[in-house]
Write a structure and sequence with these properties.
With 54 residues, the chain is mostly beta strands. The protein has one domain. β2 and β3 form a beta hairpin. A three-stranded antiparallel β-sheet has the order 1-2-3, with no helix packed on it. It contains one helix and three strands.
Length: 54
């Protein structure tokens, strides 16, 4: 992944410092390293302050 692809996948500033509940399933293998764990998540739902996002 290159820089512009990473930036295009960031949340808009209006969502900064908000809490979200993300529900989904881990797909593929988990990549666990010393200071991080990476995984791909198939998102089923996203919720913030009782409001669902699509």
């Amino acid at each position: 992944m290159v820089g512009h692809q990473t930036l295009s996948q960031q949340l808009p500033d209006r969502f900064d410092k908000q809490q979200f509940i993300v529900t989904g399933s881990v797909v593929g293998l988990v990549d666990k390293q010393n200071h991080r764990t990476r995984f791909e998540l198939a998102v089923e739902s996203i919720e913030s302050r009782g409001r669902a996002f699509r």
